[in-house]
Specification:
Layout: E1 7-12, E2 18-25, E3 32-33, E4 39-40, E5 51-52, E6 57-62, E7 66-71, E8 76-82, E9 86-91, E10 97-102, E11 105-110, E12 117-120, E13 147-150, E14 156-161, E15 164-169, E16 174-176
Antiparallel strand pairs: 1-2, 2-3, 2-4, 5-6, 6-7, 7-8, 9-10, 10-11, 11-12, 13-14, 14-15, 15-16
Amino acid sequence: YGPGDSRIAFVHHEWGNLADILVVNSKGEDRHVVSPRTYTTVGHDEELELAWLDETRIAFMLSEQGIVCLNIGTHEDSFVVADPTMHMFTVSIDRTKFAYISANGFYIGNTADWRPLKIAEFPGDSHTSSKTAEYPGRRPNYWPPSSFQWAPNNDGLVTWSYLGPAWITLEGKRYHIVGKMADIGGTCLRPR
């Protein structure tokens, strides 16, 4: 939902990894394409990670390319951050900050100027991901977070990976919350 909850942006694709961005009102009416072109996604269309910035701008990620800012009024788009190893992106609840994860680490910045600042590296892990080939530049034993979200007050992010949940502050301090999940049974947790 956009600001004021009056419109919804979503990704639509007809086939494979070609995607358009559409907007519809909150009643599901007045559906129209707002993207100036069809985007080619590396993986699935949900990986675009749409995020409203204000009433007229939507930011999203194109995997292995970077962050695009789309003006839905003028139908113009532009890359605001380029990173060929980017694979996760989110915008803060107040829409003033962004964060992304790439094979090179964890980055944050302000949506006013889109200058990313590297705040953390991810530790290696003895568990080798079978998805290494999906993210060029990834270290062989690198296990990236599978999800991350901004805290409600925008003062940090919570991540989840094979290593367990962690809190990352805006200064880049990483606090591991719990230990690894057991491979057998999947529910046993042990503190570190």
